[in-house]
Design a protein that fits this description.
The protein has 234 residues and is mainly alpha-helical. It folds into two domains: 126 residues, no CATH class; 84 residues. Helices cover 64% and strands 7% of the residues. Strands 1-2 form a two-stranded antiparallel ribbon. Strand 1 and strand 2 form a beta hairpin. Helix 4 packs parallel to helix 6. It is rod-shaped, with a radius of gyration of 42 Å. The N and C termini lie far apart (109 Å). It binds zinc ion.
Length: 234
């Protein structure tokens, strides 16, 4: 790190207002349509200040200050995420500080928002990215989307099969119930045939001999016991 850069960073630290920096509600990530007379710091600007603090702490080997800066960076990126200016943060983190913990924080944040970031020219053109890395990232995103789409299709196919199976089950249950009714109906007829001695029609008076008549619909038949002589229903 050059002495000039170090001096400019130290100047930034001197101007750093922590109260502003750690308050997400005061951040302004709008693209400039908001015509406020005071220019509020963006997420990237505030993050950069803490990155520079980390760089100084790394240079002078002050672990506690590095950790403090990292905590603030994580908080800002977690609560006030904006891709706007993030490529500059990546650039400074990987060129100004050797703190692997901060490298890791930035890598994880980039991974979390990678679909949004690969659409940004500033991000794609970063030296740390390179054509090879960007190629891998884009291929991985496409592969992930492909797997996601196939999984959705499989899920829909399984749901459709489930619906068909449920319909089939209802049909079979209905057929079983009909078969049970049919069996009970025949049992009743046979039971009556065994018990009845004389026809209930007083004008018939014959010793009862009956037959079973098929009635109802073919899909849901019913059986009626009738007298063989006068055909009256029993
Ligand atoms: Zn009869």
């Amino acid at each position: 790190m050059s002495v000039l850069k170090l001096q400019s960073i130290e100047l930034e630290i001197a101007q750093l207002d922590d109260a502003d920096a750690s308050s997400p509600s005061k951040l302004d990530n709008s693209s400039g349509d908001n015509k406020d007379t005071t220019t509020r710091p963006t997420t990237a600007n505030i993050t950069l200040r803490h990155v520079h603090v980390n760089a100084i702490a790394d240079y002078y080997n002050i672990p506690q200050l590095k950790e403090l800066a990292n905590t603030k960076i994580q908080h800002i990126l977690g609560t006030s995420w904006s891709a706007d200016g993030f490529p500059n943060v990546v650039k400074d983190v990987f060129s100004l500080t050797g703190d692997l913990a901060l490298h890791n924080i930035i890598t994880l944040t980039a991974a979390e928002h990678i679909e949004e970031l690969v659409k940004l020219e500033d991000f794609v053109e970063l030296d740390v990215m390179g054509d090879f890395a960007i190629g891998i990232v884009r291929t991985a995103i496409t592969a992930f989307k492909d797997i996601d789409e196939k999984s959705t299709q499989k899920l829909q196919a399984v749901q459709s099969q489930l619906q068909q199976t449920e319909s089939l089950l209802k049909f079979v249950e209905a057929r079983c119930a009909a078969a049970e009714r049919k069996s009970d109906n025949i049992d009743d007829c046979l039971d009556s045939l065994r018990k009845i001695r004389t026809c209930r029609n007083v004008n018939c008076g014959a010793e009862f001999r009956g037959y079973i008549e098929l009635g109802g619909h073919l899909s849901d038949p019913s059986y009626i016991l009738r007298c063989s002589k006068c055909q009256c229903k029993h």
